[in-house]
Amino acid sequence: MNLGEYANRRDVLRTVGGLGGTALVGGVAAGQDGGTTTAGGGGTTEGGDQTTTETTGRATDRPLVVTCRLDDSVALLNQETKEIFAEISVGKEPLYCAVSTDGELAYAPNTASADVSVVNVEQQEEVKRIPLDAAPRGVNVHPENDDAFVEVAGANQVAVIDSENLQVRETIDVGKAPHNIVFDAEAGFAYVTNQGGNSLGFIDLQSLEMVDRVPVAKAPHNLHVDRERNVVYTANALSNDVGIIDVERRELLKKRPLTDQNADIHATQDGEKIFVAGVQSDAVTVYHAPDDPAEGEYRVADIVTVEDQDEIRPPLPERDFVPPGLGPHGCFVSPYRNEVYVTITGRDQLVVIDTETHEITDRVSTPRYPFFSDVQYDSGN
């Protein structure tokens, strides 16, 4: 896509989404840098010893776990200081991550070595590596029994890892190229994006079987569940839109436009704001959600410029199902702070955005190719 086409897409998004063309981006003019840069990559002192962080037991002190794909590592970031205090070697090319409900373990599927690294967060070390079939992708932790559900794209399955013995106890056939998963335990379902099948799958958590599929759009990538509004949002990477699915009626309500190849989507705790990262763009799109998804309108609240594409170094060889991008990929809204953590893959940075002002408040240097982040939840993810 040339610069003219890219500018036109952003103008269309502003107009269709409801954001005036003259609006500021992220509280500053488009292209203007924001926030400060915090040295984070390396996680060591000058003498080479690993740094540590003290915690007070508050939820805001829980470390943010960041997968760094081309460094073959998981980094731990202090949410208070915005400093990376540990780097933990894992398998080859870790993609996503999920933290257990007690905060003890983090799971990181490694796409190149076809396994899952299990990291003890407090001990800051990998404690087990679990072999899987080809191309594991996303992962999430069941909020009630702590089992880890891993999407194995090469086998068209979800692998269920027992939290007690850390072994695969079940595999679920789900459809073509599953990518990631979220849980709605009260409703009794997990929802999985089938990227190759352009659909959202429904997994019954009692029988551990796929019971339904809802067509969405092209290449649904990551997803988020809003339990109050009874909807799932899918970031559709190849149709450049967000799908809004009513999970009770099991139908696609509507789609809204986004920037190029949106990769990740997450909402604030009240569900009023939705943040979406576009990995082949330079922006995070912010949507305002209505109280009634069926009758109300989803409108663009902001487009936050997080990266200058001219400064991003050339692409690195990739073999992903979706063509690679070097812009913002992971987009995680902290459940404890008014902050969004956005991983900028080609810049080796994690950008912090204020959820209220949409301003960039920090830039943290990370190991190579930061991909995704997660933190312990009080009641599961």
UniProtKB/TrEMBL annotation:
Residues 27-46 have a biased composition (Gly residues). Keywords: Signal. Residues 27-60 are annotated as: Disordered. Pfam families: YNCE. Residues 47-58 have a biased composition (Low complexity). Its cofactor is Cu cation. Residues 110-289 form the YNCE-like beta-propeller domain. SUPFAM superfamilies: Nitrous oxide reductase, N-terminal domain. The keyword Signal applies. PANTHER family: DIHYDRO-HEME D1 DEHYDROGENASE, PROTEIN NIRF. This is YNCE-like beta-propeller domain-containing protein.
